[in-house]
Amino acid sequence: MTKTVLYARVSTADQTLDHQHKQAEQAGFKIDKVVADHGVSGVSTKLAERPEGKRLFDILRPGDTLVVRWVDRLGRDYQDVSDSIRHFMRDGVIIKTVINAMVFDGATKDPIQKAVRDALIAFMAATAEAQAVATKEAQKAGIEAAKADPKTYRGRKPSYDRDGFDRVARMLDNGAGASAIAKETGLTRQTVLRIKGDRAGAEKALALWDSARG
């Protein structure tokens, strides 16, 4: 009997496994098993090296479905994301994302569909890495500013957390409108518009408060 497995990576205290599980169920997935890694960076730790992520390679069988909120849960490095997706497809596993309802199926035989699928994998993997690099650079800038003068640079605490910011950025990149993003993330439309208008500044403000907590 085939099964549907949700893999969640919860990298910060602001993210929750329940949220990712609820999102998947609201998207219509009937989850048979949940596998989750907590406090694990997708940038520095490959999927096959994570305490729980590596279990996926053992428990998933041909015909099973692997559900992730988005491909960045599998990794934030281009090679890791693309290699993981292709590995599972070769094993007959179907990968589906909650956000944007992407489907990666190795059973595809039509050459045109295969070309489109492979191009999409490359694009999504590249996007995951690009977002990781941008986040890292903004965090670095924010931390340097906070060290220089924390009281001057920190400002008001953002109304969004790291997970919320990443979701807004992703949806903006995919062309979603401010109202739709606000409804999906639970943030106000004004907050979404502020992030849209000055994404670097919004990321810097978040990084400053992250550094202050550390």
UniProtKB/TrEMBL annotation:
Active site: S11 (o-(5'-phospho-dna)-serine intermediate)
Keyword Ribonucleoprotein: no
Alphabetical list of SMART domains matching this protein: Resolvase
InterPro entries: Recombinase_CS, Resolv_N, Resolvase-like_N_sf, Resolvase_HTH_dom, SSR_resolvase
Entry keyword DNA-binding: yes
Gene Ontology biological process terms from the UniProt entry: DNA integration
Record GO terms (molecular function): DNA binding; DNA strand exchange activity
CDD domains: SR_ResInv
Domain Resolvase/invertase-type recombinase catalytic: residue ranges: 3-150
Keywords: DNA integration, DNA recombination, DNA-binding
Pfam families: HTH_7, Resolvase
Family: Belongs to the site-specific recombinase resolvase family.
Protein name: Recombinase
